[in-house]
Amino acid sequence: MLKPYFKSDDKMFYLLHGDTMKLLSQFEHQFDMVFADPPYFLSNNGLSIQSGKVVSVNKGNWDKSHGFDYINNFNRTWLQLIREKLKDDGTIWISGTYHNIFSVGQILQELGFKILNVITWEKNNPPPNFSCRYFTHSAELIIWARKSEKIPHYYNYELMKQLNGDKQMKDVWKLPAIARWEKSCGKHPTQKPLSVLTRIILASTKPGAWILDPFAGSSTTGIAANLANRRYLGIDLEKEFLEISKNRKLEILDSQVAENYRKKISGFETKNQLKEYLSAEPQPKEKVALGYVRSKDLGKLKKTNTFYFHATDKQGHFIDFPYEINNAKKLIIYSGGRTKPFYLTSYCAEIESIKIKHKSKIEGKENSKTEYYFEVQLKEQFVENNNVNLDIDLKKLIKQYCKENQIKSADYKPILLDEVFVYK
Ligand SMILES: C[S@@+](CC[C@H](N)C(=O)[O-])C[C@H]1O[C@@H](n2cnc3c(N)ncnc32)[C@H](O)[C@@H]1O
Fold it and tell me: Which domains does the chain have, with CATH numbers?
């Protein structure tokens, strides 16, 4: 079973420990946006200058140079895997330098992504070039691409324009390199500044969006995402970096610290502009979970305050990671399917909590073909709610839901619908 290394109490921040290449295929969740800062493969024993001192450019074993074929194979493998994790209208941002960015750009196009922009992030405080034989390295490149040539993506044009003095935002961003206050939980050798990630996230996602970082490091992506009310899953090989990530999240669970950080993030005209913008954004709608029960079992519902959804598919992969179903506050039962079309019943209950359980721990499900279940604890037993809209075309809504979430068939799995569809 895929167990998160860390999951925050507010269910906005998840970390997985291990190799992205192996972990990405072990869960089914699809994301609105991916930010990836993959190894640049520049740890070749060269030298640079930091705070006036000559330092090695080596970052760690994960960043060692292994030649072009290795870099291309590495990039092709993770980009192929990540494509499956992106919603059809989703976008991906990949940062790099000349060591890896041309390889990434070519492979993106080979795989059918459409490149939207190549952002030049110009650091206004770069380290000097001590050889004095070429220009100071003062920029990093960030490719922005969408999954599909044809399916439109989201771009927050108005906000970007506003942040650029009411002129269209350019693809050259002048933002400072990492500041000391961003390293309060420890040092990662290639930590990105929150200002860059905040601009990326606000430009390309809506509130509540799910964001994936397959090379999380200290989870700058996750911190920027959560500070902007977006959700995050990060993956890294090194426990040391996951600990920094976890501590950074624990730090911003304190709303005062979070507020303070929002004020310090560069790229805004005033200290309060980010806070004000976020509070004016529409909040994501609450979801209602639909659960399937055979017609002959409907009568038993009023005697229980526990409900089980399948949590793994036939291959044993989680059908919903990181537990999107946790967003549901209410559970409504639907039935039908074999002898008559799917229909909504009026059985309704408030959800107390949702946990993942193995079949061996659930009475009556020990011999099930499904390995894991979502155990939904209800606040009280099911009641019949007269406001449930029994006339809705459930078949159509389920079909639409499956299409949007790229699920082949929905039976027994949780379906999440907006409240407006379910109530009169
Ligand atoms: C360039 S750093 C990311 C830094 C990050 N953007 C930040 O702000 O802290 C790349 C990270 O990828 C991790 N990494 C390298 N190869 C990996 C792999 N195959 N699976 C998971 N993580 C990997 C490294 O441990 C490193 O922390």
Answer: 6-280 (3.40.50.150), 287-422 (3.10.590)
Distance 85 CA to ligand 1 centre (A): 18
In angstroms, the CA 4 to CA 12 distance is: 13
Average pLDDT over residues 160-188: 95
pLDDT in tens, 391-404: 888 888 888 888 77
Contact call for residues 339 and 296 (beta carbons, < 8 A): no
Q: Which residues of 380-403 are buried (b: 16+ CB within 10 A; e: fewer)?
A: eebeeeeebeeebebeebbeebee
Q: Which residues sit with their C-beta closer than 6 Å to ligand 1?
A: 19-21, 37, 39, 62, 188, 190-192, 215, 217-218, 220, 235-238, 241
Give the nearest ligand 1 atom to 220 CA. Answer: 8
Query: How far is it, in rounded angstroms, from Cα 194 to Cα 205?
Result: 16
In total, the chain counts a number of residues equal to 424
pLDDT at 198 over 80: yes
pLDDT digits (tens, 9 = 90+) for 251-287: 999 999 999 999 999 999 999 999 999 999 988 777 8
SS3 of residue 225 by DSSP? helix
